[in-house]
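It is worth pausing here to work through a concrete case rather than discussing structure prediction in the abstract. The textbook approach is simple: state the sequence, then state the predicted structure, then interpret. We follow exactly that order.
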Amino acid sequence: MEWSEIRVSTDEPCADFVAGLFHEWGAGGVIIEDPAAIRSFIAQGIWDAHSFDDEYLKGEYLVIRAFFPSPYELSQEQMDNLREKTGQNCIVDVLTVRDEEWADNWKAFYHSTRVGSHLVVKPSWEDCVVHDGDIVIELDPGMAFGTGTHITTRQCLELLEQAMAGGEKVLDVGTGSGILAIAAAKLGAQTVKAVDIDPVAIEVARENIKANGVLGAVSLEQRDLAVLTGIEADTITANLTAPVIRNLIENLTNLVRADGLIIAAGIGREQWPELKEIMERNGLTIEKILIEEDWVAVAARRS
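Step two, the predicted structure:
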């Protein structure tokens, strides 16, 4: 099968916003290439510099690549939406790729990553060093968001690891690859409900949940996040985008029990003040904030 690749290159911190737009438009998959993040991983000893081309590592531009069934053309309205956030100097290219090229593309930017104190996220095709007490999440993200390498996913994993005591009922909203649902189950959650509106994400998550041996703890549902009802979770994870979180926050607050925790990420630093005010207005108390580069993640407790 052939795919149309829409490639956006920008120096603005807008990866999750653009990825969110692409998913809204029906993208089959999204890749975020962030040379700055990769340089940080290498400096911390998380990744090996020899896995990347020298010229790529020198790059200053963030590249967001989305894949749509070919042929696909961006409308003028879509271009305007992209440039509103990415700046007028962003570069937009449209390419044609085949299935096997797509697979090789995202695998080149996905390696084992250590997150928090004990979590290790590894691709299914790669070996990694495991220490006593490590919790390994083996992941094949396919065409769904969430590999553990992007800042927002790592922030969610860190906050989740810190929050989990065991025995919780967890709701993972916008599960993508299922990485947060799997982590919650392996950290001792009693039950995990993972929800996504994207049928591709649901199937990818199902395979990852099965591969990690947590089918007994995790249930999946394809559903519009805005109309979720009948759930009383101890903890909710929501690695989305600031606009989506803003639109969902009232419903999310109703889905978490009194004194329960909402972990949210995908929030740009400049978007955080407004979202903080909205969260507090909905009866949430901010307990922890993680800030890395231009991304904010938050753990907020329902009063």
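Step three, interpretation. The first helix runs from residue 15 to 24. The longest strand covers residues 256-268.
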